[in-house]
Amino acid sequence: MLLDVKFKEGTRNKNKPGRLLVLKCDMCEVVFERPFGPRCFKQDLHACSRKCHGLLERKGGPRDEKKRHTSMLHYGVEHPRKSKIVEESRKQTCIIRHGVPYVLQLQHVINAAHTAEVESIRTESLKRVNLNGEPAKKRHATMKRMGTYSRTSKPEEQCYIQLCQQFGVEDIERQVLINGWSIDFYVKSINTYVQEDGVYHHGLDRHIDVISEHKTSRDRSIHKRWLLDKQQDAWFEDNHKRLIRVTDLCVLQDNTWLIMLT
Predict the structure, then answer these.
(1) How far apart are CA 107 and CA 114, in angstroms?
(2) CA gyration radius, the chain
(3) Residue at 215 is within a domain
């Protein structure tokens, strides 16, 4: 709250002395002074410190309530972005300037967001924060408890049946979390992990050089999956753990692939 405007004493320019704003904090009601500034002079709400400024700006605070009130008066909604008029005006401006309603639809923006460097940073960030931490373990436990993992493909279900027939139901564990990855099966008696891979989605039906050209968004996804498979293979080998991969075609054909487990 603005209380007064006073002149500084002992300024160099005696003909045009500086001015000070005498303010009252709208949060703690402490009286304080600030150098004169047009923006601060015009504001209705003031804060004496960073702490009070945070309280002033937070959701539900005085300034937030004022913004909501002003937006309701001008647009009929609590925030201008929620107004259909503002949204339509923003789209038209974007179309005039860029030819598309959203900037994120521009090809150079899409390309910049999917460079090898950005993808690497995103992958490493997710792995640090999510894949190897408590969120991944909690999500994994919740999905197993809620039965979400039961929504599997026909080849994966067939693979499970074949493993159970060979080793017994009690010997097979489904969706095992290891190093942040959910592996399809774990055979306890032989200490072996089994992963069922679809030849299309894992890039096994075409040469990787063709897929890596990323002619379609699906190819980009398949290439990413292929790289992850290679990363998993290297990790299992380095940590002296056994991982067997079997394709959906082999599983649906017969159970002769089980000879790999012996």
Answers:
(1) 11
(2) 31
(3) yes
Same domain? 175 vs 228: yes
The answer to pTM > 0.70 is: no
Digit-by-digit pLDDT tens for the chain (262 residues) are: 888 888 776 555 555 667 888 889 888 889 988 888 888 888 888 888 888 888 888 888 888 888 888 889 888 888 888 888 889 999 999 999 999 998 888 888 888 877 777 777 766 666 655 555 566 667 667 766 666 555 578 898 899 999 999 999 999 998 888 888 889 999 999 999 999 999 998 988 999 999 999 989 889 999 999 999 999 999 999 999 999 999 999 999 888 898 888 7
Query: Edge-to-edge, what's the strand order for the sheet holding 2-7?
Result: 2-7, 19-24, 31-35
| Neighbouring-strand partners of residue 23 | 2, 32
- What string of DSSP letters covers 124-138? HHHIIIIISSHHHHH
What letter represents residue 251's amino acid? V
Q: Within this chain, do residues 161 and 95 fall inside the same structural domain, yes or no?
A: no
Neighbours of 174 (CB within 10 A): 16
Burial 41-78 (b: 16+ CB within 10 A, else e): eebebbbbeeebbebbeeeebbbeeeeeeebeeebeee
Residue 205 located in a structural domain: yes
